[in-house]
Write a structure and sequence with these properties.
The protein is α+β, with helices and mostly antiparallel strands. It contains 9 helices and 4 strands. One of its GO terms (biological process) is methylation.
Length: about 190
């Protein structure tokens, strides 16, 4: 599997949120129990200090971890899961770029129509809306962890216009980027 451009902190946030979007892209291994899980596993969360992240099943199993019985991270539930994982990894690694469906389809080697249909069937979303969620996730992380301005974050996360950024951010977080920053800066 290709390198995934997510920091430890971002992966940690995904497991705390039980975020299904990242299932299959990385695995959470708990050093104390020697068990590994999907990011969306609903089991009790380990202490951060006891966690390691792995990008594929073979590596985590070679490191001596065994699969969680609850989330069964070693099983694939669909014949298209690899294709979807490849698309999601591509979106995560290229979210800053101006992407069109054809770019993504070229990367995975299928037609844009087929890609759109399979992706929607597997995730209930189009690659475009999925990319938007990844960009908003990244923006939320930057709002909490940096002092970049909202406009800098808008362009840093691949949005083409501030109005699209604000609209997308508000629809996914029920608040503006500024309100989000204020809310989360007070928590730290």
């Amino acid at each position: 599997m290709a390198h995934l451009s997510l920091s430890f902190e971002e992966m940690w946030e995904k497991i705390i949120a039980c975020d299904r979007k990242y299932d299959g892209l990385f695995f959470t291994a708990v050093k104390t129990t020697r068990i590994y899980c999907r990011p969306s596993c609903r089991s009790r969360k380990p202490k951060k200090i006891n966690v390691e992240f792995y990008l594929d099943v073979n590596t985590v199993e070679k490191a001596g971890f065994r699969a969680c019985k609850r989330c069964q991270p070693h099983t694939e539930h669909s014949p298209y899961i690899r294709l979807v994982q490849k698309v999601v990894a591509f979106l995560i690694n290229h979210y800053k770029e101006k992407l069109v469906l054809q770019d993504i389809a070229d990367y995975v080697g299928i037609s844009p129509f087929y890609l759109d249909r399979i992706f929607k069937q597997e995730t209930s979303e189009t690659p475009r809306t999925y990319l938007e969620k990844i960009r908003v996730d990244k923006a939320a992380y930057l709002l909490k962890s940096t002092d970049l301005t909202n406009l800098e974050i808008c362009y840093e996360t691949g949005f083409q216009s501030p109005s699209n950024f604000y609209k997308s951010f508000r629809s996914l977080n029920q608040c503006s980027p500024s309100e989000y920053r204020k809310l989360h800066k007070n928590r730290n």
